Amino acid sequence: MAYEFWLAPILIVVTVIAVVVGYRKLQADRVEIRAKTAKIFADFERDDARRLRREANEEAIKRKAAKIELKRVRALERDETAAILGLISEAAILHKSTLRAKRRQTVMTDEYGIVDRSRWDQEIRYFIDRVVDPQAAQWGRAKFDGSNYFYTFFGRRIEEHIGGEQGEADSLSVYQSDMSGVDFENLVAERLISAGARVRFTPSTGDHGADLIAIHDGRTVVIQCKRSASSIGNKAVQEAYSGCGFHSGDEAWVVSDAPFTRQAQQLATSLSVRLVALEHLEAALEVSE
């Protein structure tokens, strides 16, 4: 009886201990399961984050590639436009006298003061299509979807180069101290063409320091034109040097109607940039550096 008396409490204690140990083990298992579950979800979230970052990077790469391609296409278009402008500018200056005569013949003003330019517009179309370059006209029609804006756009450049009014005498441009920068560029181009050079105009924006590109006796001269009432400083020299490098020229010139500062002369000597006075332009063309 004594044995049974002590056995019952012992069994109760053992049972309680077993229950407590089992409960604690169950709790530990639950914690472990929760930790594993949390890890699995964290792995899923990390994988999703990686996937999203990868997709975002791929999309960013695609957008960047599209921007680069767009810039390349626009650069090609600018280069093509600059080339066509150069051809038209050179042809307009070369045939300046004839174009002025044609304008006098074709632009009519009636008794009411209404100006009729239709025949002159047709003449411009003919000049671009047949005299300048048939391929240029074909490119222009394709670019502007066959609209007349191509002829209007480049026709304005022809008007700029032939200058003058309808009844003005046909002659090369005459230097004037108050002439605009564009007129000064045209004057320099006319003198170069008259001296036997081929001349190409650069775009009015993005010219990288070059206004004209002249080719004479197999050498390419990149020219910065400066009409000024005051002395020309270092900036023009730096622009000419930069333009020569960009356009792969053989020589860099600054042509001006004004004197050059001593600093500009020193910089030009160190960079091998020629400083040319307008009155010495033709003579400078015959002398190679």
Question: Which keywords apply here?
Answer:
289 residues; alpha/beta; Trna Endonuclease, Chain: A, domain 1; five-stranded mixed sheet; two-stranded antiparallel ribbon; 9 helices
Tell me what the structure shows.
By secondary structure, the chain is α/β, with parallel strands linked by helices. The chain is 64% helix and 11% strand. It has a domain at 172-289: Trna Endonuclease, Chain: A, domain 1. The chain has nine helices and seven strands. The protein has a five-stranded mixed sheet. Strands 1-2 form a two-stranded antiparallel sheet. The N and C termini lie far apart (131 Å). The model is unreliable at 166-171 (pLDDT under 50).
Mean pLDDT: 78
Structural class: alpha/beta
Give the ordered list of helices and strands: HHEEHHHHEEEHEHEH
Number of helices: 9
Strand order of the largest sheet: 3-4-5-6-7
What CATH calls the topology of one domain is Trna Endonuclease, Chain: A, domain 1
Concise description?
The chain is α/β, with parallel strands linked by helices. Helix content is 64%, strand content 11%.
List the helices and strands and how they pair.
Layout: H1 2-94, H2 96-106, E1 108-109, E2 115-116, H3 118-132, H4 134-143, H5 149-162, H6 181-194, E3 198-201, E4 212-216, E5 219-226, H7 234-246, E6 251-256, H8 262-271, E7 273-277, H9 281-285
Parallel strand pairs: 5-6, 6-7
Antiparallel strand pairs: 1-2, 3-4, 4-5
Helix pairs in contact: 1-5, 2-3, 3-4, 3-5, 7-8
